[in-house]
């Protein structure tokens, strides 16, 4: 996952190579497009043996439902064999991806519409219309989600071996319970990357490249970046970083004043880009959830 995060952390900057003839809207659009492409290209590939082991685990449960003990033993042996191949590797990972998908949701409204929707959500909750509020809240997101289902190599093979022992002892219920428990230990990992922060970073970088040659367009990029930060804040994309939206907004104000004045903002741009990158990277959420908890 770290490679994905590092790559996406630079995507917004890479998409601004031809900023001289690019509007703020195009900068934002390119940042999102590049991030989506990068996520799709680099999200984790599934481990074939782990996928097959999970499929066989489910097959064993089906065998037991059909009272086919001989087939169940054979399928379970095959499942264990698939994981033994991985366990034989010296640097086998603790988590084995068995499924991976990338979803992108971009909020199309503006700051005013976000505030209006949030007020409506509060009204719906006050009226006890929780499900309507939930559906509305689901629209209030602008992010790339990289979702991976993982098999825990530490516990899953051991569970299959215990189930195999139960089958040998003709303890079918115990074997079934262990297999169902094993499937419940699959872990969903979700990486959430806020799009407004990606856009803001790209816009600030674009502005830094044309501040000397096209002051007016640079100021437009900066204003658009400030707006994206306000949208990110309104949508609740926060960070554990000490860098707050207020600090970023103050840094943007300083750059604007410098561009309108002597226009020696190189150092200010460097500092802002560093702060924004730090904030964005720490705002990226990495959430693990067991399948049994979903």
TrEMBL record:
InterPro entries: Uncharacterised_YfdX (IPR021236)
Pfam families: YfdX
Keywords associated with the record: Coiled coil, Signal
Coiled-coil intervals, chain numbering: 215-282
Naturally occurring in which organism (per UniProt): Hydrogenimonas thermophila
Leader peptide range in chain numbering: 1-21
Name of the featured protein: YfdX protein
């Amino acid at each position: 996952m770290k490679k994905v995060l590092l790559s996406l952390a630079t995507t917004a900057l890479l998409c601004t190579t031809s900023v001289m003839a690019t509007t703020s809207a195009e900068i934002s659009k390119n940042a999102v497009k590049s991030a989506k492409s990068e996520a799709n290209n680099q999200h984790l590939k599934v481990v074939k043996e782990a996928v097959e082991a999970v499929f066989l685990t489910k097959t064993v449960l089906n065998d037991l439902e059909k009272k086919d003990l001989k087939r169940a033993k054979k399928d379970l042996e095959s499942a264990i064999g698939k994981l033994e191949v991985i366990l034989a590797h010296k640097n086998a990972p603790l988590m084995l991806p068995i499924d991976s998908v990338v979803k992108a949701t971009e909020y199309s409204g503006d700051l005013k519409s976000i505030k209006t929707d949030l007020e409506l959500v509060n009204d719906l909750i006050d009226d006890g219309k929780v499900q309507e509020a939930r559906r509305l809240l689901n629209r209030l997101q602008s992010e790339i989600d990289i979702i991976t289902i993982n098999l825990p190599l530490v516990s899953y093979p051991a569970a299959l071996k215990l189930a195999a022992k139960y089958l040998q002892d003709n303890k079918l219920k115990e074997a079934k319970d262990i297999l169902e428990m094993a499937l419940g230990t699959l872990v969903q990992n979700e990486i959430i990357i806020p799009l407004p922060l990606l856009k803001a970073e790209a816009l600030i970088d674009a502005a830094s490249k044309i501040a000397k040659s096209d002051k007016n367009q640079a100021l437009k990029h900066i204003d658009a970046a400030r707006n994206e930060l306000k949208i990110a804040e309104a949508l609740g994309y926060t960070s554990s970083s000490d860098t707050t939206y207020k600090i970023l907004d103050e840094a943007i104000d300083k750059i604007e004043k410098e561009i309108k004045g002597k226009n020696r903002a190189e150092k200010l741009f460097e500092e802002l880009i560093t702060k924004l990158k730090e904030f964005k990277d720490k705002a990226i959420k990495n959430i693990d959830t067991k399948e049994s908890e979903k």
